[in-house]
Write a structure and sequence with these properties.
Layout (H helix, E strand, L loop, with lengths): L9 E2 L1 H8 L3 H10 L5 E3 L2 E5 H11 L12 H4 L18 E3 L3 H12 L7 E3 L3 H10 L5 E3 L2 E2 L4 E2 L1 H7 L5 E16 L19 E4 L4 H13 L12 E2 L2 H9 L5 E5 H4 L5 E16 L6 H10 L2 H10 L10 E4 L1
Helix pairs in contact: 1-2, 5-12
InterPro entries: HTH_17 (IPR041657), PBP_domain (IPR024370), SinI_DNA-bd (IPR010093)
Protein name: DNA binding domain protein, excisionase family
GO molecular function: DNA binding
Length: 324
C-alpha cells in the first residue's frame, strides 16, 4: 500500500535505503560525503523525506553512477560496514599519544565506514595509560621501557590499569638515541656519558617514553637526575628537543631517529630499539570503532602511510601482542 509522505517526515537510514533501493550502508556514506542531508536525534541518524526527494532529483540524469558503499581504496581492505548510528560515544572518541602515526590512524578511522571522527590528545605514554584507566580516552599509545624486565609497555600496562583487562596492538619498532650537535663536539657516545658533569641535557617532560628511558638508565647507572645539568628543563616533543640541541641550547637530548631526520645541524647516535604499541580496553574490542582500528593497523593502506613517514620497523605491525 502506498503511503504519501510529508516533506518533513523523518526517515531512518533503512527507510531511506528502501526508497532509493540501495544498501543501508550506502546511505551512511552519502551522508558522510555531504551528498544527502542527515542529522542526529540523540544517537540516531535521521533524514527528512524532502532531502531524499532532492537527492533523487539531483541524480535523475546520472546513469549508472550509484555510489559505492566504500571509497575505492578501502573496498578491497575492509569488511562490510557495520551499524554507524550505535557506536559514537557521547563524550567523543579520543586517541591519545604524540606520534604522527596516530594522526594517520585518526584520519583513516574517520574515513572507515565503521569508524568515527576521533579527537586527538597529545599526552605522553604514562599519562596516556592513566587517562585510559580513568576512561577519558579510548585508545592509548606507549613506548615505555622497563629496565628490570628489559621489555616495553606491558609492565606499565599491568601497573597502570589495575583490574582492567587490556589489549596491546603492535604498531612498529623504532630507534631511540641521542641528538647531539653536528660532528658531536662533546664526543657523547653512550649511556655511560650520563655520568659526566660537563654536558647539558635537553630533557623531555615527565611521563613521556623518552623521559622514562632516560630515568631508567640513570637508575641503572646509580645517577640522580637532578645532578645532570639541564635535567629540569623540559621540552614536549622529540622535535622540540632536536631543535633545541641544533640551536645550541644543550649538548644532547634523547629521542627517536625520525625526528633527527627533520632537523638540521644535529647528528643522531642510535642506542636502543623500542616498541610502539596501542593499548585498548579488552571490553571495547567488539565495538565497531575498535574493530575498525584493528583492521586499519593491519591494512596495506596504513602500512603504505607509515612507509612514507619512515623510521619504523613494521615487521609485526597490527599484531595483537598481549591480551589479558
Amino acid at each position: 500500500m502506498f503511503i504519501a509522505l510529508e516533506d518533513n517526515t523523518s526517515l531512518t537510514p533503512q527507510e531511506v535505503a528502501d526508497i532509493l533501493k540501495i544498501a543501508k550502508n550506502t546511505v551512511y556514506v552519502l551522508i558522510k560525503r555531504g551528498e544527502l542531508n542527515g542529522y542526529r536525534v540523540g544517537k540516531k541518524v535521521r533524514v527528512d523525506y524532502k532531502d531524499v526527494v532532492a537527492y533523487k532529483n539531483k541524480t535523475k540524469n546520472v546513469k549508472d553512477e550509484a555510489p559505492e558503499p566504500l571509497d575505492s581504496h578501502w573496498a578491497d581492505i575492509f569488511s562490510a560496514p557495520l551499524e554507524a548510528e550505535e557506536h559514537i560515544p557521547e563524550r567523543g572518541f579520543v586517541i591519545c599519544g604524540q606520534d604522527i602515526v596516530l594522526d594517520v590512524l585518526a584520519r583513516l578511522l574517520e574515513m572507515h565506514p565503521s569508524g568515527v571522527r576521533p579527537l586527538r590528545s597529545y599526552y605522553g605514554s604514562y599519562n596516556s595509560l592513566y587517562l585510559l584507566y580513568k576512561g577519558d580516552v579510548q585508545v592509548a599509545s606507549a613506548h615505555m621501557w622497563d629496565a628490570d624486565t628489559n621489555t616495553y609497555n606491558l609492565p606499565y600496562v599491568k601497573a597502570l590499569l589495575p583490574g582492567t583487562p587490556a589489549v596491546l596492538v603492535h604498531i612498529g619498532r623504532r630507534m631511540e638515541g641521542l641528538y647531539v650537535p653536528k660532528e658531536n663536539p662533546k664526543n657523547i657516545k653512550s649511556w655511560d656519558d650520563l655520568r659526566r658533569e660537563d654536558i647539558t641535557i635537553v630533557n623531555r617532560e615527565r611521563g613521556s617514553g623518552a623521559r622514562i628511558l632516560l630515568d631508567e638508565h640513570l637508575r641503572l647507572l646509580g645517577v640522580q637526575g637532578k645532578t645532570l645539568p639541564g635535567y629540569g628543563r623540559e621540552c614536549l616533543s622529540h622535535l622540540a628537543v632536536a631543535s633545541t640541541v641544533s640551536r645550541g641550547g644543550g649538548d644532547f637530548g634523547i629521542g627517536n631517529e625520525k625526528a633527527a631526520m627533520q632537523v638540521r645541524n644535529i647528528d643522531f647516535i642510535p642506542l636502543q630499539e623500542e616498541s610502539y604499541d596501542l593499548i585498548m580496553r579488552k571490553e571495547d574490542l567488539d565495538k565497531p570503532p575498535f574493530k575498525a582500528i584493528l583492521e586499519i593497523v593491519a591494512s596495506p593502506v596504513f602500512r603504505a602511510e607509515m612507509e612514507g613517514i619512515g623510521g619504523y620497523d613494521m615487521t609485526n605491525m597490527g599484531k595483537v601482542v598481549y591480551t589479558g
